[in-house]
Amino acid sequence: MASQTLYDKLWDRHLVAELADGSALLYVDRHLLHEVTSPQAFSGLRSAGRKPWRISPNVAVPDHAVPTMRRELGVAGIADRVARIQVETLTHNCREFGIPLIELEDERQGIVHVVGPEQGLTLPGMTIVCGDSHTATHGAFATLAMGIGTSDVEHVLASQTLRTHRQKNMRVVFDGTLGFGVTPKDLILALIGRIGTAGGTGYAIEYAGETIRNMSMEGRMTICNMSIEAGARAGMIAYDAATEAYVRGRPYTPKGTEYADACRYWQKLHSDDDAVFDREEYFPVSALIPQITWGTSPEMVVGIDGCVPESAGSDEAARASFKRTLDYMGLEPGQALKDLPVDKVFIGSCTNARMEDLRAVANLVKGQKVSRSITQALIVPGSGQIRLQAEREGLDAIFQKAGFEWRSAGCSMCLGMNDDRLQPGERCASTSNRNFEGRQGKGGRTHLMSPLMAAAAALTGKLTDVREL
Amino acid sequence: MEPFKAHSGLVIPFNRTNVDTDAILPKQYLKMLGKTGYGDFLFDDERYLDPGDVDIPVTERRPNPDFILNQSPYDHGTVLLAGANFGCGSSREHAVWALHDYGIRVVLAPSFGDIFFNNCFNNGLLPVILAQSVIDRLFELANQPGECVLNVDLEQCELGHGKDVWPFVVEPGRRDNLLSGLDDIGRTLAFGETIREYEVRRLPLEPWIFR
Q1: Strand spans (E) along A255-313
Q2: Domain boundaries, position A348
Q3: Do A134 and A172 fall within a single domain?
Q4: Which of A85, A465, B13, B124 is a good FRET partner for A14, with 20 to 30 A between their CA atoms?
Q5: Are A282 and A373 in the same domain?
């Protein structure tokens, strides 16, 4: 057989049929659902009199619009009436169609892309879809994982397949060792800065190289998570010993001889040595410094010692867009980013709310105080289990003593669907994934960065090079 | 879904790149449970001067006079002409529902976000990828005084304005979706037997997938 990329292998394994119109039916092994992008899909099933094709591939969890405080009240504690109805609708739909649901009160509840891997719902070799663009997170486990729209959520429920088109192959090779204070988040931000937010459009990206091989599963998830910010629906990483160590013993991971069989198959989940990619990027990392976004697109990113660009060149539309961005962000051309005062700090999201992130933050802020100029510093764990683990390790005490608010799990201020959001003009050091206008609240100004950099900003009250603390 | 065969409408020159789905429909409207009723909230952050939410009637809000959808003649436009990477970011199909519910039937751009592009075809909205040179020419026409009406013919795959005609390409399956207005799911379930056969083949290879 000809040499194949990891993507080609996953595609071929899941191909049900190639259709005459050029699309393909791809089998879906795992379908994750949440409250925001599923109600219309369930309504569609109901009105057509259809049932789910299979039950067990589906798991639902509310995460997007849930409050991160007073969770002992359960769904009744959701103050926003419309959001409460949406979460209740998820419960109702799951009961009606028999879909397994991790409820708000369950300690396993959390951000769907944190919960999947944590529970072993995410297993190597799977195809995984969810009505959420950050589904690529699961690609860290050598899966083909993609975000889909609500029509496709309904399609997957009804047929266990996705109508889709084969992507081109791109490989990004990260080479070298990350320096002190530099994290996987900095790596993916720098890549997006290089190839642009449309650089990966039409491609499935495989991240490879020495840096990835030496990276934890949590770091790999951070990288794959932001593939969509580079335009790619799917990002993935080959299976190796780190993948095996992570999935072993999780609740939904196969057991006994079946686990041994699974591992034998999973060993094949890598690109062949002589596989050909449509595009390759080589990215040496040893000189990389902590990254920070200055604008309203993730590609508007520089090192912490950098400045806002002086201009956007001669193209009229580009100049207008540049001016608009700077007006929105309250910045001047050529302005240095370091020492820019921030109002709020958000440490959380499906990009950076796992144990490794929280431990790194705790290590930095232990015995220190959040700057008085910071009006709110939130730490929102990615799941209830992470919250419990952090509390077992005493991290909650460290955070609260330093002046951070320690919240319950959910998407929170990454997209501001609950009460956690920015007010107009507020500047935020955020570990989330999008700095779009209004993303964290109408008029809010988001600077994306790593958890270490956000923690440093919390301590000093301004954008800070964490390596200098 | 209503079939899309051809459309004739006023072009809205929306000369911006990387228009994300958060901008097309902000988060507070994702709490709604239906597929309609989003049109009033299209580009909400920019379209109104005051903040909005599901429960706030738009008639009580102040429109932003500087925003193109609030300006004549563009306030009755139905063909949105935009810059590269339109619809990037969040997978929210609500962005497509908002455009369609508002009355937009065609979006023209040099490139689109992948998930948005895919979502359009499931909702009777035609996204057309055009060469930058054609996009530039259309912006020239749309920015001239008077109304620029474009005829979009999906059966012929042609855009027309006066004597000018520009061909475009749409994948056959996606084109059929729009032309017929047919339910994708029904067409897929016609392959039910093929899906069952696939499951039977796959089961012994990875039984844990079928637990």
Answers
A1: 279-284, 291-293, 301-303
A2: 291-468
A3: yes
A4: B124
A5: no
